[in-house]
Design goal:
Length: 232
């Protein structure tokens, strides 16, 4: 009986990750429960806002803010994490139940998609997944557009992407404070400045003289509102 059991175990094929929706992420590394998705959004926004109040060397530009907040949101926020992180705007956010960084199923710490196509075994080794992504790759491969302009489908934690022809691509985080829409972003370095975090009312952006940064459908430089693929 023991020999037969051993033969059955050996004959079973190893785990093959499944990407049923062909979005570039194995299903096991996505958040399928609504409670987990809501918890992620709250952690993501809270962590980003905390870095606005207390800037850190870990955040140096707009893409870095998104990656930092995304990675920290997926971690287990135990006492050790809280002591290291410092302040939080809302310490009552529930934990994500599905998994925690760095033990993300199938992809480990390579949580950012930087190439197109469905997930395949070997994507990490081939560099199609990694621990870094610039603005262009975040928009093209790590997220999906949910709206061209602000509407009922946009949720806190979604991203705004800008792709002007004569300037660098830029990303902002959509947040809501007291039911009013805001955007949070890092300006990035420029000249002799290291840049800074900014929290701005969406209405203020709409009124800018420079159309480049207006999040409006009529602005050709505004790509739209995007959502992390693991939340779909």
């Amino acid at each position: 009986m023991n020999v037969l059991l051993l033969l059955l175990v050996v004959s079973v094929s190893p785990h093959e990750p499944v990407d049923a929706d062909s979005d570039g992420f194995p299903d096991a590394a996505e958040l399928h429960q609504d409670a987990d998705r809501q918890a992620f959004r709250r952690w993501f926004v809270t962590i980003a806002l905390s870095r606005h109040l207390n800037p850190t060397d870990d955040v140096t530009d707009c893409a870095n803010l998104v990656m930092y907040s995304y990675r920290e949101a997926l971690k287990e926020h135990d006492e050790e994490w809280r002591a290291r992180f410092g302040e939080l705007l809302d310490p009552s956010i529930p934990e994500i139940a599905a998994f925690h960084y760095p033990k993300v199923p199938d992809i480990g710490t390579d949580i950012f998609r930087v190439a197109g196509g469905a997930y395949k075994k070997g994507d990490r080794e081939a560099g199609r997944l990694g621990n870094f992504a610039d603005v262009v790759h975040l928009m093209a491969h790590h997220t999906v557009r949910v709206a061209r302009g602000l509407g009922d489908g946009v949720l806190p934690g979604d991203l705004l992407f800008f792709t002007p022809r004569d300037k660098q691509a830029h990303v902002m985080i959509y947040v809501e404070l007291k039911a009013e829409p805001y955007v949070l972003y890092h300006t990035g370095p420029g000249g002799t400045s290291e840049g800074e975090m900014r929290l701005v009312k969406l209405q203020t952006l709409m009124a800018l003289d420079d159309e480049t940064w207006r999040p409006h459908e009529a602005n050709p430089a505004f790509a739209g509102f995007y959502r992390f693929k693991i939340l779909r």
